[in-house]
What does this fold into?
Amino acid sequence: MVTALSPSGVFAFSARGVNKLNSKNLASTNELSLSSLTLLSSSQGKLTLKEGKLEESLLPQNEDLDAFGISSYMLEAALRFLNEDSDPADCQTVFESIVANLRSLNSGASAYLAGSRFLSSLLKVSGIAPEVNRCVRCGSRKAIIAISKTDGGFVCLNCFQAADERKSVPFLSNFRTAINAPENLGEDNARDLFLFLADFLASASGVHLKSLDTLKKF
It folds into this structure.
């Protein structure tokens, strides 16, 4: 069985023999493959692959471990947060984000910058995007000094608690940009920003991703 993400949704299908090296459909069903598929539907609605055509391999084209790690994270996260009942609009948003950011990796973009931009889309689709325009506790727009993963956003000086994570002004600015305008993110502190966003997602959702553990070891 193969699980796939399309612009209209998540779906699973049977693909007999695709693990064989001489299978004509091997390339089109590999992970991170952008493919055109011809599927047959049974009377019970079960899908079977008739023919697949690889349109584009989105696997990193170099030996950059960070790029491979971020690619694995995007794939795992997408398939953990989306399912066959997900809103088609959400699936389209995540699909387009994955494709765009994987392509950017092969154009030489920072892996962690691509990962942060992907996480911006996923946090919004999941309905757990942090509050980055005002204090999550009192609503103040002034003296923002920290981020609360528990309460979900910025915290001002007056509301600061010991469990909050105090951050520098540049980091807070990048965090806000990551949520409001990810296309404007630069590569400064890209790894720290990605890991914080990923931890925020895990804390807010309760979903543990194995690929994140691997990335933290790099």
Q: What stands out?
A: The longest strand covers residues 47-57. Strands lie at 2-6, 9-13, 33-41, 47-57, 144-148, 153-156, 165-166. The two ends are 31 Å apart (CA to CA). Helices lie at 65-81, 88-105, 111-125, 169-180, 190-205, 210-217.
